[in-house]
Amino acid sequence: MIVWTLKSCDTCRKALKWLTENGIDHAIVDVREDGLERDTVAQIVKALGAENAVNRRSTTWRNLASEQREGLDETSAIELILANPTLMKRPVFIRDNSIFAGFTDATKTKITD
């Protein structure tokens, strides 16, 4: 399993701690330090949808020009995330052909199934 995180994200830290405590093997990719590749971002946006792939509660989102925030679709979401990696909703878990975002009870269930 690959977990896309941000070092400064509290939810990401909780998720990584939970994975370790539950003995779930994982590799960590920090979106800011390690960067993002177009193919990976496109895969995430396609799986989650543009609305669910972008973190609209982030400071980065609020600082975007209104023109950039309007009409969000898959193409614009990919471009925005590539230009501003902290816009990606986190953490993102990629295991085999499954992609999950966020750290909720539902996500925990998906991870352990």
Description:
It is a single chain. The chain is α+β, with helices and mostly antiparallel strands. The protein contains seven helices and four strands; from the N terminus they run E-H-E-H-H-H-H-H-E-E-H. 48% of the residues lie in helices and 14% in strands. The two termini are 13 Å apart. The relative contact order is 0.22.
Q: What distinguishing features does this structure have?
A:
single chain, 113 residues, alpha+beta, Glutaredoxin, 7 helices
Topology:
Elements: E1 2-5, H1 10-21, E2 27-30, H2 38-48, H3 50-53, H4 59-63, H5 66-69, H6 74-83, E3 92-95, E4 98-101, H7 105-112
Parallel strand pairs: 1-2
Antiparallel strand pairs: 1-3, 3-4
Helix pairs in contact: 2-6
What is the number of E strands? 4
Mean pLDDT: 93
Q: What order do the helices and strands follow? A: EHEHHHHHEEH
Task: State the strand order across the main sheet.
Answer: 2-1-3-4
Shape: globular
Estimated helix fraction: 40-55%
Multimerization state:
single chain
CATH topology: Glutaredoxin
Largest sheet: 4 strands, mixed
Q: What is the count of DSSP helices, taking H or I runs of 4+ residues? A: 7
CATH class annotation: Alpha Beta
Could you name the CATH homologous superfamily?
Glutaredoxin
Question: Radius of gyration, Cα only, in angstroms?
Answer: 14 Å
Span between termini:
13 Å
Q: Which spans of ≥5 residues are poorly predicted at pLDDT below 50?
A: none
Number of domains: 1
Percent range for β-strand residues = 5-15%
Structural class: alpha+beta
CATH architecture identity:
3-Layer(aba) Sandwich
